[in-house]
Write a structure and sequence with these properties.
The chain has 60 residues and is mostly helical. 67% of the residues lie in helices and 0% in strands. It has a domain of 28 residues.
Length: 60
């Protein structure tokens, strides 16, 4: 894993942690996230909320 990949990895973890906190603090967002049927649905919903969680650490 290159240094840049590691930084991307850490950023994704940070984004996921922030997303979890947002969902845990909002019953409405919790209902929306659990209604997602696919990974792509979750990624798109997170993007609407300002989070980028779709890329893997090795993707550009």
């Amino acid at each position: 894993m290159a240094k840049k990949d590691y930084e991307n990895f850490l950023n994704k973890i940070d984004q996921l942690n922030q997303l979890v906190e947002l969902i845990n603090n909002s019953p409405e967002k919790y209902q929306l996230i659990i209604s997602c049927k696919t990974h792509e649905d979750v990624v798109e919903l997170a993007k609407q909320w300002g989070y980028e969680i779709g890329k893997r650490w090795g993707e550009s």
